[in-house]
């Protein structure tokens, strides 16, 4: 497991400024005392605003411990053009993935060889046999990008993956972006240590776009709740939103604020764990309303569930091992119900990396996006993607993947979520050598996105890191659609929100994975600059 390796236990200023012409430095060189103040301010801000992970193992009757989530000390430089490009694509991506979700035939064909997809597909088949009673779906998506530097010295936006279930990190990122903007306004980023041999960027408010993830996700859930309308069952007096969550959840700070924001709008929200809690505390009426029976109000009337928001159920292990039958049964009950799902089981299936790869096959995008302009703009963000099956393209990929040198430029990915499943570069041939060949088709092969590096300081429970870093931008998309045989692509878009929220994560160069909660990267926000300024600040030396 790759961890942040360059830990600097105590901060030391490096000695710059021996050259004749001013050297461009970002972050600006800070005297130790100023940096120590910044670290202290960030710690206080994080504790005060819930920028925290819960240490579930220390949860006691009367207290609980937390630690601050990994954070960047300075906002990281990112080119404005590619940031705007990513935001500008999101509504088309939302439409694309809604249409893919409603194209059962294509989806089945694409995913039929994937083991975990089969578990979900069987749930879909079982529900379809009974007949679906809800045509609407809510999408809370996140499209992830990195910058790719090509040999001509240009940077291009390339998609890492597209997520359609339990898209996390939005609230954490929102907080870190608020924090960076707070630090900027109180002058914490004005360098005291610049002399005439060093130039830097004076970060102003206009470099730091606000992110509105909390309000955007919340309004998506509100719109689905409103669309559902009043309770249909005579047994319920009120509707509510149900969050399906993982047990022993250390990342509640990324979920609870959404719940509180909904309560603030007088919408009752309850959390149930996948899966015993769902089975114990919900029931289906004969007309398929999903009723929630809050354990704390045993004698009171049940509430009718308007929207089910999944922050669980995306990992294959949740459906295998002890209790796996329960998770499946819980998912069937939810899917059978009249509640609007976020996501529906078909929309969940579109998150598979196999779908991302299949969409990149020449001509396939046009099936979903007949407008050539839209298809072109979307495909411009695709890296090279190959299947690993026995097709001609798959055999070509197998050759690339098995070559000791060539494999360095690729990432091998199974269709699994949550981080830690990919195989990177030169590790691929050895990995394949000990994986039975009949299992290779579960993977896709993707060309490595080689990001230009800039400099920053990262603070996480592993320590302080100073040096070259790489960022990943995740644009959130919120949309509501109705399945309709008559509409183009079988999808009538009811709401497709202007994207104004994103997550931004940064890791040290040399770390392959990114998950912040698993300790690889840090939450961050972008400092938007012109391309030439960004390129002028790209450096990958360790000393900074
Ligand atoms: P997961 O579902 O585990 O999040 P991802 O596809 O997002 O899977 O991969 C995890 C991380 O690995 C990404 O956040 C990114 O940092 C890195 N990564 C994934 N694909 C590539 C790629 N093609 N090039 C470079 N880095 C990649
Ligand atoms: Mg990812």
Q: What does this protein look like?
A:
The chain has 544 residues and is α+β, with helices and mostly antiparallel strands. It has one domain. The strands form six sheets. Strands 4, 6, 7, 19, 20, 21, 22 and 23 form an eight-stranded antiparallel β-sheet that branches. Strand 19 and strand 20 form a beta hairpin. Helix 1 crosses helix 5, helix 4 crosses helix 9 and helix 6 crosses helix 7. The longest helix has 22 residues. The radius of gyration is 24 Å and the shape is globular. It starts with 22 loop residues before the first strand and ends in a 7-residue tail after the last helix. Bound molecules: adenosine-5'-diphosphate and magnesium ion. Adenosine-5'-diphosphate binds next to strand 7 and strand 16.
Key attributes of the depicted protein:
8-stranded antiparallel sheet; single chain; 544 residues; binds magnesium ion; globular; glutathione binding; binds adenosine-5'-diphosphate; alpha+beta
Shape: globular
Computed CA radius of gyration, to the nearest angstrom: 24 Å
What is the typical, i.e. mean, pLDDT? 92
Give the % helix: 25-40%
Q: Specify the biggest β-sheet.
A: 8 strands, antiparallel
**Head-to-tail CA distance between termini:** 25 Å
Unique ligands: adenosine-5'-diphosphate, magnesium ion
The counted number of beta strands is 24
Q: Which segments are poorly predicted (pLDDT under 50) over 5 or more consecutive residues?
A: 1-19
SS strand fraction = 15-25%
What is the helix tally? 16
Structural class: alpha+beta
Q: Structurally, how many domains make up the residues?
A: 1
GO molecular function: ATP binding; glutathione binding; glutathione synthase activity; magnesium ion binding
Pathway: Sulfur metabolism; glutathione biosynthesis; glutathione from L-cysteine and L-glutamate: step 2/2
EC number: 6.3.2.3
Pfam families: GSH_synth_ATP, GSH_synthase
